[in-house]
């Protein structure tokens, strides 16, 4: 009804009606890449120091993008994303 491309609902009865507009729905996509792709713990070229211990260092890239389902696009739209990553926490 409001032209945003998302289904709206109207419920009517004796002497009255209610209109319910659906809120925007967004799909969030995430991708994670590693460099190097494979880790050999015996190779010294990836060694570094982390908290005073020798470690194997890996560069990780996170990419997030989202898609809003309505037809009304806002070029200035933004989303706050908070995430926590834990890899081999028990090692």
UniProtKB/TrEMBL annotation:
Membrane topology designation: Single-pass type I membrane protein
Stored Pfam families: Integrin_A_Ig_1
Organism the protein comes from: Nothobranchius pienaari
Listed GO CC annotations: external side of plasma membrane; integrin complex
Key words, A-Z: Glycoprotein, Integrin, Membrane
Start and end residues of each Integrin alpha first immunoglubulin-like domain: 23-89
Coiled-coil spans in chain: none
GO molecular function: integrin binding
Places the protein is found: Membrane
Name the UniProt record assigns to this protein: Integrin, alpha 1
InterPro entries the UniProt entry points to: Integrin_alpha_Ig-like_1, Integrin_dom_sf
UniProt keyword annotation of Glycoprotein present: yes
Major location category of this protein: membrane
Gene Ontology terms: biological process: cell adhesion mediated by integrin; cell-cell adhesion; cell-matrix adhesion; integrin-mediated signaling pathway
């Amino acid at each position: 009804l409001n032209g945003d491309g998302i289904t709206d609902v109207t419920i009517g009865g004796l002497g009255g009606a209610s209109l319910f507009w659906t809120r925007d729905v967004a799909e969030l996509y995430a991708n994670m890449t590693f460099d190097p792709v494979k880790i050999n713990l015996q190779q010294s070229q990836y060694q570094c120091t982390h908290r005073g211990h020798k470690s194997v260092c890996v560069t990780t890239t996170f990419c997030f993008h989202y898609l809003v389902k309505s037809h009304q696009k806002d070029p200035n739209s933004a989303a706050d994303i908070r995430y926590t990553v834990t890899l081999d926490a028990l090692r």
